[in-house]
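so ive been stuck on this for like two days lol. basically i have the seq below and the ligand is copper (II) ion, smiles is in there too. i just want the complex predicted, nothing fancy, no docking runs or whatever. if the output looks off dont worry ill sanity check it later, just need somthing to start from for the group meeting slides
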Amino acid sequence: MHACKPQPRDGHAARRRLFFVLAPCLAATLLATGCGDGGGGGGGAPFIPGNNGTGLVTETFRNPPEVTSKDGVLSTTLEVSTRTVEVDGLPVTTTVYNGAYMPPVLRLKPGDTLALRLVNNSAAPTNEHYHGLNVSPRINPDATVSDNVFLHVPPGTTTDYRVAIPASHHPGLYWYHSHQHGSSEQQVMGGLSGGLVIEGLLAPVPELAGIRERMVLLKDIQIGPDGKVPADIDSSAPTHRTVNGQANPVMTIAPGETQLLRIGNISANMYYRLTLAGHTLYELARDGIRHNRLVPFSELLLPPASRSEVLIQGAAAGTYALKSLPIDTGPQGDTAPEATLLTLVSQGEPQQPRVLPAALPPVEDLRTLPVARRRTITFQESADGNTFYIDSGNGPRQFDPARVDATIQSGTVEEWTVLNPTGEWHVFHIHQTDFQVVEVDGAARDFVGHQDNVNVSFQPDSGSPPGQVKLLIDFRDPIAIGKFVFHCHILEHEDGGMMAVAEVVPGWPDLARAKARTETPTALMTPVARESVLAAARGIVQRWLTGEDALAAARARREELFAQAQAASLCRTDAPPPEARQ
Ligand SMILES: [Cu+2]
């Protein structure tokens, strides 16, 4: 929570309730089913006045625009500029991609290259991150940029990103967004986020061939009295929650029809607790990674940046609300009232329901692999909730791009225990790779697959253990070699310092490969080329050794930094008791 100003929660809640009761009323001009709860409940087939002469509703839901790869390359331009766009019927002057609040979905296949030109015509620096992709974090040899968030694109300049997507990449839903440290909350809330799909999710499931796919990209925006996103965003303040930029659109399905909803939380700070009245959400993939089986949900928690690709099967004819239930992220956190996000109308000729697959292709269980190293990562914030830290084992620190907080050997799997001793939820996310959640608050979790984003619950009171998750993080793919970040994906917290730098350095297998590459061909090279290759190999070894030196120095300073942190009262000691929560 941003706590540097009063938090008039009651007033906000009342205003939000008013707003979200009004929004379904607009949809009701189509539905004429009343606006008490935005629909819900099957119970026969209510008369639905249509606007196309058939008695059937013509859906207002729209998938976002798309750009797709061709011949292995997706070549596109995103222009960042400040425009006045309309969201939820209101004009808002904000910074967006290509003049639209909802930018195009980027669709690629495994093995493709994304060639994205980012033209910054706005007044502030920005950059691009490709959330969830297992791609290089480096600058490419041709000076184009891969998924590198340390690079900034100043106003009036252009940067060419070139992101090579491995042929073995997981197919599923990802997203792209500004990762401009210090401004990411403002820029993402203002509009700088969009969807990205790696195609092929349903390929190994022939029983689902040909089903309709829907993009359900969740974005919220606060619009101040001046028609702009507030300069100092209060993460509990009223906001406009949208699906693909639309407020409570009407989406249709036939009774019995199976559809794939690609649901992505591409908001800055907002959590969603999703329920779809009358329907079960069968989660096929989380964070773009297919599970080993379908996981049914009646309520789905989607923290900021998480994605869930779910199957639904149309219930009996009627109207049903996709809602987000009320949110409360803890005594130091934020609240949000219930909201109807989308209205699903089941109508038309019933279909024979598809038989949902009993099993999906196997997913590698990382628990079968040796753990190279264990770390404890602790989310911390000051007692006033204004300053955010991560303790990566060297004491609480705010983000510093020039410092490496965790040096990791490529080719390994590590076990990270993420602790949350604060009074509000945080969200752990790491770039370039994925992880397996093996424990949540001390309880073993069933193995269904991998993910790149996970909620970490708060510490209920000073007598309870901190919230915690235990993760197995996969650093085996050398594509991750380089520097990148891990952070809380509540962007208010990330901007406030809750981010740290990881560096994956070549491990012994990589060094062995580098040595072999160096020794074999050098006899055939010119002296200059040979010296260049040998220098590169020496550089790899030196970086590896330097990483070890840094680790040793960090260990030596750990006690000293911890003592400093305690003296500065960085550890939370004054959270209100649980009964004080609203
Ligand atoms: Cu956080």
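Confidence is low (pLDDT under 50) at residues 2-49, 515-526, 545-555, 561-582. The chain has five helices and 34 strands.
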